Each structure stands twice: as C-alpha cells, then as structure tokens.
Amino acid sequence: MAWQIGSLSQVPGVYTNFEDNAPALLQRGPRGIVAVPLLTFDGTATAETIYEITDPNGEAADLFGESNTESIDFAFEGGANKVIVYTMPATPDTPAYETMLDALEGRTFNAISLDQESDSTNQDTVQQAVTAWRDEGKHVTFVAGGDDSDLASGNTRSGSIEDAYVVNAITGVDEAGTVVTSAELAPYLAGLIASIPLNETATYKPTIGDDVTPRLRKSDRETAIEAGSLYLIAGADNVKIGKGITTSGDFIRSINVRQSILNDLERILQSEVIAQLDNSPEGRQTAISMMKRHLEDNYVNIDAISDGEGDGNEDAEMDVYVDPQNPPQQDAAFFIVEYTDVYSMERVFLTVRRQG
Fold it and tell me: Residues in domain Tail sheath protein subtilisin-like (predicted)?
C-alpha cells in the first residue's frame, strides 16, 4: 500500500511508494517521409513553396489539381506517411532545382525522388546535393529512374550517379495494361524505401504492377547487380524488387540503418548533450550511456544491428567509447560508435545428394 504525508496509517504493515526516475526512452527518428519537387500544379498552391501532405485522400487535389498528384499518390502507395512537396517554378532549370534543394535542406525526410522525370542534369543535381547533405550531417536517399528502353543506358545511369545514398531503378511495371516506367515509379519506390522497417530487406519486397517491363534474363540481372542497378522481377502472384541495392552496391537495408543511426545520434547529441554536459570523465560517460542505450533499445533489440551473439564474430557487439586516438580538448569530445549490420538471407546455395 502507498503512503502519503499528512495521512499516515496507524495500522502495522509496510507502506511503499514507487517513483520511476529512469530517463525517458529516446525514440528513433521519424521514418516514411518522402520529398518530391512538383513540376505541374493548377490548384491553390503557389510556386516555390513547401507543402507537407499527411493524408493521401486529403488536400493534395485542392492544392495541386487532381491531375497533378500522381507522384504524391505513388509515394503514399509505396508506404510513405508524409510527402513534402516543393512546387517548382514555371521554368524548372538547374538553378530552380538548386533552389528547391536548398529549401528542402532544413526539412526532415528519408528519401527524395523527382516528379516522374529522368533528366540526367536534374538527377546529377540531386545526387550532388545528397552527397553535400551527408557532409553536413543530413542523411537521405535519392531514388532515380529512366525510360527503360535500353538496359545498358540504365546501368550507365547507375554508374553516373553512383553513391551509397542513391538508388537507380532500371525496370518499370505494367499495371492493368498501362506501362509505368522506372522514372514514373521512382516516387513509389522512394515511399517504399523510406518506410521499410530497419530490420527488413528491400529485396523481394512486393510492388505495384501485374508484370515487369522489360523482363530481365538471369544474365541481365547479374549485369544489373554489378552495375548497382535496382531491377524488378515478376513473381508467381506479384511484382517485387529483385535485389535491394544502391548504386554503390550497398544493401538498402544497411544504408537505411546507417542513415537512421547517424540522424538519431546527431539529434540526441544536439538536444541532450551539447552545452549541457561537462567535458569531464563523468560527462563523457553520460553521453556514452545515452548513445548506447538508444542503440540497444532501438536497433539491437529489433535485430537492425548485431548484438554479437551467434554471429561467430566476437567483435560484432555494438559499442560506444571515447576515441583513444583523440583525447578530449577543452570543449571538444571525441567518441567512437561501432556496430555490425544484420543481413537478410538473400542467397541460398544447395547441394542435393542422391545416395542411392
């Protein structure tokens, strides 16, 4: 039974109050947010303005016009829970795209795609921005596509925008007799990639469509993987991603985890550590404990990263510690964060022996 000053019971017994002083659990940052620069609109929206759409059946049609929301609709259909729309000016030249990217830099999102177009100059501009953002501590994925008429040119495109944070699709889908190119499908794939749980792979994730255009032979798939291209395959009852990789050949699952951890630690350190803890052994240990607890609760416990158990690798366990090569200096503290990816079983090699 609980007790309260001013009304203490006279009955013999044990009276206990419980106070939970454990720090609040630091949650993982938001997932499932896609950014799209909208080329055409004729509703109430104005040019060079950012709009956040959270309801796929809500205000988008009024803002942009019913015939102009396909990229937004695709992003939601892929799994996005929010689409950040930037309305492009009437003349969307390279400076306009650079302005769009500058405007979006301060917003939180997980993936960006173009508005169903595949202009190589615009793709290069976005890829360069994603790289620059990474250097500034902003981690997002760019999803690109093309017209799919030539597989070689699609693979070449993967090479021209090669980056761990870029996904390039080289096949589209046939949906109810309508061909949807990979460029048109890019917002859908951005929604899918942005919303995949961190402990799941993109490989074999089902997509829209009744068939793939074009269908790839096994040799074509091998070539695509070597080039860092994302392709689709037609299964028995659905279309799905063939192998979930970025143009650098990294697994999308691994990159999603990497981006999420980097974004989370930056957010936590900015809000809980910077100018709030002394740069003393005690302060540094508090920061370490905070980061380790977050990674344990939000990544290790869901098998997004390894806990070192059963991996055959004693160094696989997640760890955070003071950087031994860079001792603290006045107001500067240096830490090392170590973790090991968990991989999905995507390839199985069988040896079947008949013994008699």
Answer: 93-247
